[in-house]
Each structure stands twice: as C-alpha cells, then as structure tokens.
Design goal:
Strand content: over 45%
Number of strands: 6
Largest sheet: 6 strands, antiparallel, barrel
Number of helices: 1
Distance between the termini: 40 Å
Order of helices and strands: EEHEEEE
Oligomer: single chain
Length: 113
C-alpha cells in the first residue's frame, strides 16, 4: 500500500484529418482519449514570465507525461480539473532510463479559448 507520487487522468483530444475546406486547409475531427497518471504542476513565476515573453501565451500548468506514452501532445486540447487547456509548443523529453520517476516528458499548457 503506497502513498507515492501519482498523477491524474486527463482527456487528450487527438486530431484526425477528415478533409479539406474550400480554402485548401485541412479539416480535423477531435476524438477524446483518457490518459492516466499525468502530473499537473504549477509553474514557477519565472517560467510564466519566460513563456509569455517567448510565445505571448499565458502558461497556467506544466504537465508531466508518463513514460511510455505514445500520444501526440503538440497543438492539442487537454481537459482536467473541469476545464480545457491548450498545449503550448511541444513536449520536452528526458532520457527515460536516466529519470527515476514515472514521467519523462514535460508539457506547458494555457487556458483554452
């Protein structure tokens, strides 16, 4: 019976291209997928400022993505805590074997919409 560090289940919206609109842009369908054991952390004040200065986006949370996860997180909507968020950029990844805990990718998210 462990009381170790663990994440929550989040809803990740996967995108599938379903066609092309009248302007030649792709049309996507979003499909919700449950991803378990995702860490949700509060970014430091410096991370919030740096992200705003570099991207113009307002960082709200940093997610820890579990080792072995194969989902695409870049440019995706993610829901947790009853709210929707949008990925900022792409996940940064560490070498799985050299990281002692269960998460090896980090993703920044902003409030969606």
């Amino acid at each position: 019976m462990g009381s170790g560090l663990h994440g929550i289940t989040v809803t990740l919206y996967e995108k599938t291209e379903t066609g092309i609109d009248g302007f030649g842009r792709p049309i996507y369908e979003e499909t919700p997928v449950q991803v378990e054991n995702v860490l949700v952390g509060e970014p430091s004040t410096q991370e919030v400022i740096d992200t705003l200065n570099l991207t113009g986006k307002h960082l709200v949370y940093t997610l820890g993505i579990p080792k072995g996860d194969v989902h695409t997180w870049t440019d995706r909507k993610i829901c947790f805590f009853g709210e929707a968020f949008q990925a900022i950029g792409f996940p940064t990844q560490g070498i799985e074997d050299l990281i002692p805990l269960s998460w090896n990718k980090k993703l920044k998210v902003e409030r969606y919409g």
